[in-house]
């Protein structure tokens, strides 16, 4: 994998942590230009990228993530930042969510949580922080459609948008898998997404995010 963060302390700390966990770190860089060069030199399974990096510390990392997804679609992208940069995050998440994640640094409280997200993204799945999902869904302009969902269906929708499987949702919400499946079907029906309900898990996440305006 490749790490990109302008904080030397965080970058080197992550590199050491990942090496200790058996992951091979191909490069650890501090700016978007070096990130793209490193990916071009040896495309990794996944790149962990901060949003704000030199030279302007605005959205250089996220724009580099979009470039990676365009040029090297097989490379997973895990954004690890303090901020939810909505414009480019929307483009990243609604372009093709396979192998995409977005975590907030301040909300990652367990190393295992980060490693689980990293492995999901590397495997072509998704990993979204609940707060990222909340902020993106909140601006979608489909509140009337959301009003049709029950409280439990909203919970399931949030878990779906984070990239969790039905089995994982059942465990996290302490309900049966059949109950999750029932709620998922209800969500697709109420959001007029029934035609997409039978597609893969990552595509249903994309459908939900697109419908809600992400």
Task: Set down the secondary structure blueprint.
Elements: E1 2-4, H1 8-20, E2 27-29, H2 32-41, E3 46-49, H3 60-71, E4 76-81, H4 86-95, E5 100-104, H5 111-122, E6 126-128, H6 130-138, H7 143-147, H8 151-162, H9 166-173, H10 177-190, H11 201-211
Parallel strand pairs: 1-2, 1-3, 3-4, 4-5, 5-6
Helix pairs in contact: 2-3, 3-4, 8-10, 8-11, 9-10
Organism: Streptomyces mimosae
GO biological process, one term: phosphorelay signal transduction system
GO molecular function: DNA binding
Primary descriptors:
214 residues; alpha/beta; Rossmann fold; Arc Repressor Mutant, subunit A; six-stranded parallel sheet; 11 helices; transcription regulation
Description:
The mean pLDDT is 84. The two termini are 28 Å apart. Strand 5 (100-104), helix 5 and strand 6 (126-128) form a beta-alpha-beta unit. A six-stranded parallel β-sheet has the order 2-1-3-4-5-6, sandwiched between helices. The relative contact order is 0.10. It contains eleven helices and six strands. It is of the alpha/beta class. Pfam families: GerE (PF00196), Response_reg (PF00072). The modification 4-aspartylphosphate is found at residue 50.
